[in-house]
Amino acid sequence: MSSPFGTPQDILPARVQPLVNAPAINAESWQLVRDAVRPDLATPYLDKVPRAINAGLNDAAVTYIWNMVEEDLRRKIMAYGIDYFGAAINKSGLRTRDDLADEVKSIQLLEGCLALGIISKEAHFFLDHCREIRNQFSAAHMAASDLDTIETGNYVKNCVKYVLGHDLPPAGFSIKEFQEHIAQPNVDLDEAFELLSGQSSRIYGAVGHSFFGAYIDSNTSNELRVAIKQLAPRLWELLDDDLRYEVAMRYASLKDRPTPNHSELALDFLKVVKGLQYIPTNLSAVIFQRYSQALLDAHSSFNNFHLEPAPARALLELGNAVPIQAAKLYAKANLLCYVGNTYGYSWGAVPAIERMFGAANPTVMTAIRAILKNDPTVLLALQSSAPAKRFKSLAEVLRQRATEPDLVGLLDEVIGKEWNFVVNEMRARYAAIQVKK
């Protein structure tokens, strides 16, 4: 795993290796620690740790070394660029090292450093364990039990191995300057993307967070938002799934949605990058249900042929990762709009609906199977000649996605027979559900 500043974080500096190989760390072997940390950290404060261990105050020793870890991570953040860090942890207004100390929790410090590549995934795992030990067993809190010397020695070793033994990074690629650049008129965005993609992959997540934050900010210029809209989908392709989930989860964060406008812009960003599948299912279900209901409401309106295209296109933009909770409403709205009524159908909505049905996932196909069996509104609509003829056309599209035997059988019959088969079949199905009532 490479850090954004070029040094592989899983390769230890030579000075740290003797410490890692040591069987135990205690007050007597403390020189190994002093030799392993960066020279600027071999201070009198560091030497409080062995004195605490000698006095049997292992909880104090843990507190001292952890304080050094947090302070060194702050220094590394400042050296690399605090703008990145604020974007990575979804927190604006961070400008100084004091801001990091006063406003950033320990867990956020570790998460942000991981996102920037200042620490590796392995380091994050062990340091997060160190953080928990500091919280539960150090002098910072009332502890239920005491740490022994071996545990304390391992704690010190991990703090040095993963943080205190590593050098400060050089300054990173400036996200702020990059965004100022792409907001300028007549900028070649292809060239800008080449510049971005040529950076270390470890900064992509921070840029993605920054793009999201800028996109939903009401103070962002239209020029910058348009540029992000063009660059973000290409950046999204470079992110791994973990980073996509991190960015998408910001939509679920209330602090990112203080006003309805923030919510709509955040949703628009996720539609632009085709990232809705990365938000929690319960939240994406609500979104799909809302957009499906809007399409169904348009279909039920007086001027439905004119009103349906816009909500159909909006629903298409959500992508095809339709959650099971929204599948029936999604399928019903699309089907009814496609087949229309005795007066015709909305030509403007058809291309979007055909694309949605053409990419329907198994959940949507199961929903179509269900509503063709027992949804009275759909069964009634298909008893009219014009909608029945339209359904015969739609059956060709649905047949490409169908796998369930009874749905496959129905669609094959619809395709192979005259349109009045649809009328008679749906009439019989409607009668059957009335009998069951």
Write the layout of secondary structure elements.
Blueprint lengths: L16 H5 L8 H7 L11 H7 L3 H23 L1 H7 L8 H7 L2 H11 L4 H17 L11 H16 L10 H8 L6 H9 L6 H13 L5 H15 L4 H9 L10 H13 L8 H20 L3 H4 L1 H9 L6 H16 L10 H9 L3 H13 L1 H6 L3 H15 L5 H12 L2 H18 L1
Structure description:
The protein folds into 3 domains: 14-164, no CATH class; 175-278; 281-436. It is an all-alpha fold and 437 residues long. The protein has helices at residues 17-21, 30-36, 48-54, 58-80, 82-88, 97-103, 106-116, 121-137, 149-164, 175-182, 189-197, 204-216, 222-236, 241-249, 260-272, 281-300, 304-307, 309-317, 324-339, 350-358, 362-374, 376-381, 385-399, 405-416, 419-436. It is built from 25 helices and no strands. Residues 1-9 and 254-258 have low confidence and may be disordered. Helix 4 (58-80) packs across helix 8 and helix 8 crosses helix 9. 66% of the residues lie in helices and 0% in strands.
Summarize this entry quickly:
The chain has 25 helices and no strands. The chain is an all-alpha fold and 437 residues long.
